[in-house]
């Protein structure tokens, strides 16, 4: 099992770590030195029995014990940090590998996952494995090495007594195996209950504003209490169910001690054993039993870690978006985007979200995608970034099918600005540099200026060094989006996909965002999902979507003349804003 877990470490992190191997070797040495400490004591007792003991012998034995003790402490002292360093480095690598894998997993996979379950895998499962390697493996290995070494040494003194000491071991082992069998089901229940609890707590905290405003507090609370009650019950079960079997394991293990007394007295009587050897065995057997019991307990933890490991390995086995074969990957030379008979449906969704969409988005210019809510605008734009693959037809970038461009290469060409801009906790500067980590300060400020973000950033308490709280909650929607635009400008990708911010954007901020978008469109292919039609009057090309189909396309004036859906939407928005079309 240990070998399996160690190899699994290599599999997870994609690399072995010599510090971990050395740390384990030192843990073995620690256990052996711990056992060797008893040897001088036993030799001394034998000399006492033989009447050959001298002061010199006593001091030599004391020195030998001291040396073993020092060796044990030193091995632990040097080995432990090695194990920590090796385990943390390996898990750091494993975390990056999981994160990197998830980066290439089709987005559809995420929508099928419960966020609590995924976050449980990424946090508690990985922590459990990390804890296993950093804290557990060393003490498990030394805890096993110590009684084994001690029994080997003692076999040389009296092998019959060693057999008696360990007589209960086979039955105890069966009891331990049964304990693990018994704990399996409550263990599964606990994992499910913990994931449900994590998920429920996350939903509760994220939805607290909605819960309050809709007065659904009682309902949400009851759900939370039920889920936490289940977690509590599962925790109790996981402790209570195996207890009688664990007790039997301890009992069977120590049954050898009673045997030791009986057999010892028997052999004393027929003069094949000295009383002091028996005393030595009676003294030494106690720590042996204690260590073996601890090791038995620890195997329960191994079982849980193994399950956590399987769950992480399952995560790494999620199929990725297919990459083009090495050598066959192509790079787009131009940046026009062509949809050719594209049909797309979400996994588990009802019916096609895009149906037979064919259009050309010209290179270097501003293309707006408009249409009623649910028409498929976001889906269309996300498909350009290949967040999913189309089911029928193809999307070509500069004449190359997206599926023939490697993901890394595609990301070099495409920058995305979502409506729900994700800012990470860190400074404004860190968030901007995400676009290009090596950008110097001047380049960052220049991008921020062009994205109309410089002035409000300077007005923040510490300017660019202001630390944003998680998600950038202290900024308005418009400000977050301008930071995100600056980030995209810094990345300098030739294609920019943008979902115009609608939330908390006042008219002056909106004008600034429009200026920033116009700035972006110079020399780039910009595709923007526009929610306010007045912002797209000057777009080079407008795609009008309805029910997953492209119903009209062209420039603003031509579309108005056509008198179709665009003209209808336009007049509706004009009325809503209290303006008359004629005055525009
Ligand atoms: P729009 O941006 O025009 O509002 P969307 O592209 O967001 O439209 O959505 C088009 C349709 O696809 C809607 O019916 C929506 O419910 C559905 N949809 C969007 N995202 C998903 C998803 N991840 N899984 C399943 N259905 C989705």
Automatic annotation (TrEMBL):
| Taxonomy, superkingdom | Bacteria
| The ABC transmembrane type-1 domain, residue ranges | 23-296
- Pfam families noted in UniProt: ABC_membrane (PF00664), ABC_tran (PF00005)
Alphabetized, the UniProt keywords read: ATP-binding, Cell membrane, Lipid transport, Membrane, Nucleotide-binding, Translocase, Transmembrane, Transmembrane helix, Transport
Q: How does it sit in the membrane?
A: Multi-pass membrane protein
**Full protein name:** ATP-binding cassette, subfamily B
Q: Per its UniProt record, what PROSITE patterns does this chain match?
A: ABC_TM1F (PS50929), ABC_TRANSPORTER_1 (PS00211), ABC_TRANSPORTER_2 (PS50893)
Q: What is its main location?
A: membrane
Q: Where is the signal peptide?
A: none
**Locations listed in the record:** Cell membrane
Q: Name one GO molecular function term.
A: ATP binding
Gene Ontology annotations for the cellular component aspect, listed alphabetically: plasma membrane
**Membrane-spanning intervals of the chain:** 20-44, 56-75, 136-155, 161-179, 251-269, 275-302
| Organism field | Oryzisolibacter propanilivorax
User: Which CDD domains would you find in this protein's record?
Assistant: ABC_6TM_exporters
Q: Among its keywords, does the record have Translocase?
A: yes
Start and end residues of each ABC transporter domain: 337-572
């Amino acid at each position: 099992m240990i070998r399996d877990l160690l190899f699994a470490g290599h599999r997870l992190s994609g690399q072995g770590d010599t510090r971990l191997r050395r740390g384990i070797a030192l843990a073995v040495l620690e256990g052996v030195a711990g056992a060797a400490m008893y040897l001088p004591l036993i030799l001394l007792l034998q000399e006492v029995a033989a009447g050959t003991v001298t002061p010199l012998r006593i001091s030599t034995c004391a020195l030998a014990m001291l040396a073993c003790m020092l060796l044990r402490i030193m091995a632990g002292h040097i080995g432990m940090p090695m194990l920590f360093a090796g385990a943390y480095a390996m898990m750091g690598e494993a975390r990056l590998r999981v994160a990197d894998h998830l980066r290439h997993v089709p987005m559809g996979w995420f929508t099928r996952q419960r966020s609590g379950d995924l976050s449980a895998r990424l946090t508690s499962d990985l922590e459990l494995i990390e804890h296993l390697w950093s804290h557990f493996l060393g003490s498990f290995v030394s805890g096993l090495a110590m009684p084994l070494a001690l029994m080997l040494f003692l076999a040389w003194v009296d092998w019959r007594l060693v057999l008696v000491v360990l007589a209960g071991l086979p039955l105890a082992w069966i009891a331990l195996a049964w304990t693990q069998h018994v704990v399996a089901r409550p263990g599964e229940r606990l994992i499910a209950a913990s994931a449900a609890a994590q998920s429920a707590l996350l939903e509760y905290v994220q939805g607290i504003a909605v819960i309050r405003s809709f007065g659904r507090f009682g309902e949400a609370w009851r759900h939370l209490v039920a889920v936490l009650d289940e977690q509590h019950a599962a925790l109790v079960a996981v402790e209570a169910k195996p207890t009688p079997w664990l007790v039997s394991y301890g009992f069977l293990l120590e049954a050898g001690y009673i045997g030791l007394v009986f057999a010892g007295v028997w052999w004393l009587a027929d003069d094949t054993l000295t009383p002091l050897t028996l005393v030595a065995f009676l003294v030494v057997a106690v720590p042996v039993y204690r260590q073996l019991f601890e090791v038995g307990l620890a195997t329960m933890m191994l079982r849980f870690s193994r399950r956590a490991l399987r769950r992480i390995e399952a995560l790494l086995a999620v199929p990725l978006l297919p990459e083009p074969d090495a050598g066959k990957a192509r790079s787009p030379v131009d940046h026009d985007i062509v949809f050719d008979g594209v049909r797309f449906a979400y996994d588990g969704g009802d019916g096609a979200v895009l149906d037979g969409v064919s259009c050309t988005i010209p290179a270097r210019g501003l293309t707006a995608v408009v249409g009623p809510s649910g028409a498929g605008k976001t889906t269309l734009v996300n498909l350009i970034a290949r967040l999913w693959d189309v089911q029928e037809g193809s999307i070509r970038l500069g004449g190359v099918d997206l599926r023939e461009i490697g993901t890394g290469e595609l990301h070099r060409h495409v920058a995305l600005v979502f409506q729900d801009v994700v800012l990470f906790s860190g400074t404004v500067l860190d968030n901007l540099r995400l676009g290009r980590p090596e950008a110097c300060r001047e380049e960052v400020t220049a991008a921020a200026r062009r994205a109309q973000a410089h002035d409000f950033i300077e007005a923040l308490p510490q300017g660019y060094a202001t630390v944003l709280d998680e998600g950038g909650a202290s900024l308005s929607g418009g400000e977050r989006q301008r930071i995100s635009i600056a980030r995209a400008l810094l990345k300098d990708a030739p294609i920019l996909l943008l979902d115009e911010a609608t939330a908390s954007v006042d008219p002056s901020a909106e004008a600034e965002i429009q200026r920033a978008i116009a700035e972006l469109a110079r020399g780039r292919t910009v595709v923007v999902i526009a929610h306010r039609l007045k912002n797209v009057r000057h777009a080079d090309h407008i795609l009008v979507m309805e029910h997953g189909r492209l119903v009209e396309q062209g420039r603003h004036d031509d579309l108005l003349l056509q008198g179709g859906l665009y003209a209808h939407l336009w007049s509706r928005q004009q009325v809503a804003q209290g303006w008359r079309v004629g005055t525009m």
